[in-house]
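Hello support,

Our group uses your service weekly, and this is the first time we've seen a run hang past the timeout. The protein is Scavenger receptor class B, member 2a. I'm not sure whether the cause is the sequence or the server load. Input pasted verbatim:
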Amino acid sequence: MTRRSCAIYATGIVCAHLLIVGIALVVAQVFQTMIHSRLKKEITLTEKSQVFEGWKNPPPPVYMEYYFFNVTNPEVFLAGGKAAVKQIGPYTYREYRPRENVTFLENGTKIYALNPKTFVFVPEKSAGDPEVDIIRTVNIPFVAVMNELNSYSFFLRTVVSMYMNSLGIEVFMTRTVHEVLWGFKDPLLTKIHSMKPEVDEHFGLMWKKNGTHEGEFVFHTGEENYMDFGKIDTWNGLRKMSWWSSNQSNMINGTDGAVFHPLINRNELLYIFAADLCRSIHLAYVKDVEVKGIQAYRFAPPSDVLMSPKNNPTNAGFCVPAGDCLGTGVLKVSVCREGAPIVVSFPHFYQADPKYINAVDGLSPNKEEHETYLDLQPTTGVPIRACKRAQLNIILKRIQGFPKTKHINETIFPIMFVNETATIDDDSASQMRTMLLIVTLASNFPLLIVGMGVILLFVLVVLFCRNRQKKTAKDDTAYTQVSDKPDEPSETQATQPMRNGSYIAMSPVEAQKC
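Update from on-call engineer: The timeout came from a worker crash unrelated to the input. Re-ran successfully.
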């Protein structure tokens, strides 16, 4: 056997083995199963890894952008006209949210943690100075007192109204952004505090929220089931709430939005418990996106999250008392926040009933600026970009006994909205790209084997064809050319008699006589 034949046989044997093994691995999905099993087993909070450290101290910077609606025509609104507002901002703060008092429970299957939040003003990302800029907005303490007295007698409401007039308290107030946001000593609350010490004399939208936490959380670590990774087990010792009017609405579902289980698919709904909204919300897949070279799935709250119970009966549980429902796009949360009739929505009443948008001039909702979304890396379940947007509103309406409100048309009045954003930092993005490359190569290793087998098959065909060509050429050179014309006789041939015919690679033989 020649060396060329040995090479052909060896190539054929290796090619056959690679194709058989590669196709078998692809069909059985051995490597994909191994990778997925590894992810399910090791991406848990109990692993001493970057995932755990990243969960305790999230590396991406989180920014809180506050936008306020400055009221430009309070007199017109109080006289029964339509209010007009102008958006100002943003006033941006860097948010720090480390996990503290982290304690493992029940053999590492659960973990206890506090999540205090601290805010630091970032002037270079802000539109102005919050301690200088003045805004005119609804006097929320005034509305809270009116709302609290609504169930009392007309006589008492009238007396309180006269007293507030003597203090010069109006429906709208003018304060600095810093005061409205972080608090000031309110004259009305100060008077109430002198009679009821449990009432705080200060008011601010973020009063006592700088450096504090939203409650005590216990999370699942995913040790028992990777699908439970990061899910909330209890909040302030509760597995369900009691504010709403149905068991489904009172459920505490999902994670706190910081992490999700690995191996996310496009068809599932993701749940987040939002303590500031006093409820859980779900997010659905929207589209594929790319963030800093990392492929991700975008999830966002669908329109049915805040849809009217008329169109989405499952939301009837958020009507308190039962049957007292608002329209699409708004949620009354005063049930869990005592005092003023607070309503939350998406910014500029995005996805809300047009009647709320048209009730106030100066609103222009759009998806790009006002949608809440999460961009998740599906293999790890890690958020690589997040944008949480929510608007704070208050219900203004006529209340008998308070003459200042006698011409007001009931309105869900916008106060401010917040845009909470976070994007993965460059170092973390580089590490994730490297990790995902390794996972991709490992998962696709059987395809590489099949590819090598196909290449060797091509080489085998080329070698086989060339070998056939050389054999054919060798067989052709075993014969001499047949001449069509007689050669000139040489001196030797001259002495021999001429014979008819030609010869082929053999000495002439004497013709036998009959």
